[in-house]
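R.M. (postdoc): so does anyone remember the format we settled on? I'll just put the structure tokens first.
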């Protein structure tokens, strides 16, 4: 990789370790993944089986945007076929590392979501709302002004879909509808019964918004009507 690519990789490692810090309760075990756009043709995404907390430069796989997005054209692929296609979407051997099954989701967030960095986590505070019958409330409006400034005026809510290609299809549909309706890409995506996807720029700004994304749902119980229940 070029020197600029090395700098982006180092930023991605730092971001991943920050998100994976156990005290922050953003991910469980090896769950969660991150990515960064390297150029118009390729991106880095966390490899399957690696953890955010223990991320290092060898934890990421370089992927080709075109081949990764082409996976969305597969029709009901068997697990083996999808795995082979993911491996074929790499730009090199990558030491045998297997890309995350959510690599197509990251490619969409980077291209159609117009992000530089993407972080996908499963924060307890966020999922306590996303796994309830009030999940849509997170994207229906803001409680306070700074929430709009940092998280965006129009977060995107994506209905539940199975992990992998079904979720990538749901995200693509959501991003395109959001852009038609709002005119811009969202900064924050809430995945029903699943987790959070944050679309960001340089790491310093991204980290600030990450704190808001994960802390805001903790305020929702005070605004929830009696009878709101988890499912």
């Amino acid at each position: 990789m070029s020197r600029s690519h090395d700098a982006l990789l180092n930023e991605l490692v730092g971001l991943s370790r920050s998100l994976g810090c156990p005290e922050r309760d953003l991910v469980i075990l090896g769950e969660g993944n991150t990515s960064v756009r390297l150029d118009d043709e390729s991106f880095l995404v966390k490899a399957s089986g690696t953890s955010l907390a223990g991320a290092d430069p060898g934890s990421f796989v370089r992927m080709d945007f075109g081949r990764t997005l082409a996976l969305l054209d597969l029709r009901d692929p068997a697990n083996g076929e999808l795995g082979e296609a993911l491996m074929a979407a790499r730009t090199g051997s990558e030491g045998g590392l297997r890309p995350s099954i959510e690599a197509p989701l990251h490619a969409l967030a980077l291209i159609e979501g117009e992000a530089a960095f993407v972080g996908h986590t499963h924060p307890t505070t966020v999922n306590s709302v996303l796994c309830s019958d009030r999940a849509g409330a997170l994207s229906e409006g803001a409680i306070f002004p700074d929430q709009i400034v940092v998280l965006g005026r129009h977060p995107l809510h994506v209905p539940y879909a199975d992990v992998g290609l079904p979720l990538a299809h749901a995200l693509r549909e959501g991003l395109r509808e959001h852009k038609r309706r709002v005119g811009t890409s969202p900064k924050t995506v809430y995945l029903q019964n699943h987790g959070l996807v944050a679309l960001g720029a340089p790491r310093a700004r991204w980290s600030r918004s990450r704190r808001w994304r994960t802390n805001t749902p903790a305020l929702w119980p005070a605004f929830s009507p009696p009878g709101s229940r988890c499912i």
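R.M.: ...and that's the designed sequence above, right after the tokens. Also worth knowing: Strands lie at 33-37, 42-46, 60-64, 117-121, 156-158, 188-191, 195-200. The CA atoms of residues 87 and 96 lie 9 Å apart.
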